[in-house]
Structures are given as structure tokens and as C-alpha cells.
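Suppose you are handed only two things: the residues of a chain and a line of SMILES describing zinc ion. What would the bound structure be? This form records exactly that question and the answer produced for it, so the two can be stored side by side and reused later without any lookup.

QUESTION INPUTS
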Amino acid sequence: MSGPGCPICKKPPETAYRPFCSRRCADVDLQRWLTNRYAVPAEDDDEGAREAAFDDE
Ligand SMILES: [Zn+2]
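ANSWER OUTPUT
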């Protein structure tokens, strides 16, 4: 069976931390999620970019 497993390290998940195998892996996933979330609006600091966004159809 190669389906469900910890998304980070593929080990069998621990019930308390499902779908992760440990608190550490759950933390890693959360950090990735936050990083992705903050990576996008970081570019929104440019005034030129703001105008370009308005013109973009
Ligand atoms: Zn893991």
C-alpha cells in the first residue's frame, strides 16, 4: 500500500498528528504553507506594479 502517509516524510501517520507522523512534520507543513502565503503579496510593494495591475485585463 503506497497511498496515505505523512506528506512530509511518507512515514505512517500518527493518529494524534494525522495526516502527519509527528508534530515536527506538522510544523514543517505549516511553515511551508505560511511561506507560500507570504511569498505572493511580498511583490505588491511596487507602485508601478499597482498601476499595471489596473491596466491588466
Ligand atoms: Zn513525517
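WHAT STANDS OUT: The longest helix spans residues 23-39. The radius of gyration is 18 Å.
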